[in-house]
Write a structure and sequence with these properties.
two-stranded antiparallel sheet; about 270 residues
């Protein structure tokens, strides 16, 4: 390599979609409560520029409070959802508790059972029906490690997330969080924080650039709420590999419509 020549970015690829190079991917959440609602939202998502769809499992089948019944319902809908998305869109599976900004309580053991079922291919020689799974960094370290191990074995990528719905930690803390998630086995570390003022947004963007300089792989860095909206469209400039946008109901504060996000991203491309 010539002096001053920058190393190419380290990226990850799911279903031919390269995360971490140039234009950030738009991830659309599906928050339907039942089979039909999820498939209807998937159809709407497929009509947007989004190439990654997040199935928010905590919103699904709220009538199933028993973890085994909920898991069975998820697995029953999964093949139809995979078929509806087609071969070129990636599927991210996420379940968040109320403390994590979600809708369902679940133990580490039951979460692990669910994610392992989702990541296990239906038969030998066939890839898993999900392409990525998300797990919160606040889960027990051994739970995170088991998810990472199963994902590696199944060819599935792992997002390890950190959410702060009250404040924005210091820039140093945010950098440390993203790096610790990578050490824990994350293919795609993610941090989402809540700004109290414009400078919190600036320091989030600065932390994202600092972590990108490690060139250890892609990450996601977002600031939530109206103040943080700029971070949802400026990922290419500030080195965040993906953003979240809606085709209806939002799954987190400050999400914008997917078509609007796509247009603004193109307008802001450096």
């Amino acid at each position: 390599m010539e002096p001053n020549e920058e190393a190419p970015p380290v990226t990850i690829t799911v279903r031919g979609i390269e995360l971490g190079r140039a234009r950030p991917e738009i991830i659309v959440p599906l928050v339907g409560d039942d089979h039909e609602a999820v498939l209807e939202q998937a159809q709407r998502a497929s009509e947007t520029p989004s190439r990654v769809v997040e199935w928010r499992l905590d919103h699904f089948r709220s009538d199933h409070t028993d973890p085994a019944a909920h898991r069975a319902a998820v697995l029953e809908t999964l093949p139809a959802l995979r078929g509806a998305l087609g071969p070129d869109r990636a599927l991210l599976a996420t379940l968040r508790t109320t403390a994590e900004g979600g809708q369902r309580e679940i133990s580490d053991r039951n979460l692990l059972l669910l994610l392992e079922e989702l990541m296990t291919p239906r038969r030998a020689g066939v890839q898993a029906l999900v392409d990525l799974v998300d797990i919160e960094a606040s889960r027990a370290p051994q739970t995170v490690a088991q998810v990472v191990e199963t994902a590696d074995r199944s060819g599935v990528k792992v997002i390890v997330s950190h959410h702060d719905f009250e404040s924005t930690p210091s820039e140093e803390e945010r950098v440390a969080i993203l790096r610790s998630q990578r050490r824990a086995g994350a293919d795609l570390p993610k941090i989402a924080v809540t700004p109290q003022g414009p400078r919190d947004v600036l320091t989030l963007l600065s932390a994202s650039l600092t972590v990108a300089e490690d060139n250890a792989g892609p990450h996601i860095a977002l600031s939530m709420g109206p103040l943080g909206a700029v971070t949802r469209v400026a990922g290419e400039t500030f080195a965040s590999a993906a953003t979240f946008a809606t085709v209806g109901r939002a799954s987190a504060p400050g999400q914008l419509a997917a078509t609007d996000v796509a247009e603004v991203i193109e307008m802001l491309r450096p």
